[in-house]
Amino acid sequence: MSKGLAIVTGASTGIGFELAKLAAQDGYDLIVAADEPRIDAAAHEFEAFGTRVDAVEVDLSTIEGVDTLLAAAEGRTVDVVIANAGISKGGAFLDQDVASWQHSIGTNVTGTVYLLQRVLRDMVGRNAGKVLVTGSIVGYIPGPFNAIYNATKAFIDNFTEALRNELKDSQGVTLTTLMPGATDTAFFDRAGMRDTQVGQDESKADPAKVAKDGWNAMLSGKGHIVSGLLNKAQVLASGVVPQAVLAEQHRKMAESGNRQ
């Protein structure tokens, strides 16, 4: 018997893939989404756990894309939503084309916010549902050479904290923010940041461990979880260290050609 229906965005690789796998292992039927054909192969892997899996290849930076994703539920109640999709493009902001940074903002902010509004309205209406949103510790850090991504995660970290407060009297509905640091995923290849210090750092977190931290936090109804002890320390330091210093530290990690 299915535990219910879970939607997972950005589920083709990395943290999103691992979160979808945990949901399938736990007995949830799945709707998994990404903006690449690889989502179909991922869906086949999740089906091995004996649950129904629907794959949706869709542009989650648009309102229409999110509507297409939600339509895949075909009227079924959505019990869990994991809003994990995120896109980055590293490099100097002035060198980036408009379509690139607009797509990042659309996916990381607009699509995520719209998805949350749609699903949380239903959840609050029936007093039941769990939502996990992937933010990031970089939301606390000015991000030279990844400026758009860090800024979008600052928005998500702040937005979910505010929304959680708005929902505090909604019985049975929880909203959890997962805040990882650098994680060993395809993120750095896609962002064109493999030749940076952070891209080549071999101590990046295991996406399966990050996903497990987020999944457990969501199930227990925690407000947010910073995955990793070092990342917890970085968040604490962000409230003490001057922003200009944090920006310079980030530049050394994210500027192309800066390697260990």
Describe this structure in words.
This protein is an alpha/beta fold and 260 residues long. The protein has a single domain (4-254), classed as Rossmann fold. The protein is 47% helix and 15% strand. The chain is built from ten helices and seven strands. The chain starts with a strand and ends in a 6-residue tail after the last helix.
Any descriptors?
10 helices; SDR_fam; Short-subunit dehydrogenase; single chain; Rossmann fold; 47% helix; Sc_DH/Rdtase_CS; alpha/beta; seven-stranded parallel sheet; NAD(P)-bd_dom_sf; 260 residues; oxidoreductase
Kindly provide the name of the CATH class.
Alpha Beta
Low-confidence stretches: none
Arithmetic mean of pLDDT: 85
Strand content: 5-15%
> Level of helix content?
40-55%
Q: Span from first to last CA?
A: 50 Å
Q: Tell me the radius of gyration.
A: 18 Å
Q: State the CATH topology.
A: Rossmann fold
What is the name of the CATH architecture? 3-Layer(aba) Sandwich
Strand neighbour order, sheet with most strands: 3-2-1-4-5-6-7
How many separate helices?
10
Number of domains: 1
Strand and helix map with partners:
Blueprint lengths: L3 E6 L4 H12 L2 E7 L3 H10 L5 E5 L5 H9 L8 E4 L14 H29 L2 E6 L12 H20 L6 E7 L7 H4 L6 H4 L6 H13 L4 E3 L2 H10 L4 H12 L6
Parallel strand pairs: 1-2, 1-4, 2-3, 4-5, 5-6, 6-7
Helix pairs in contact: 1-2, 1-8, 3-4, 4-5
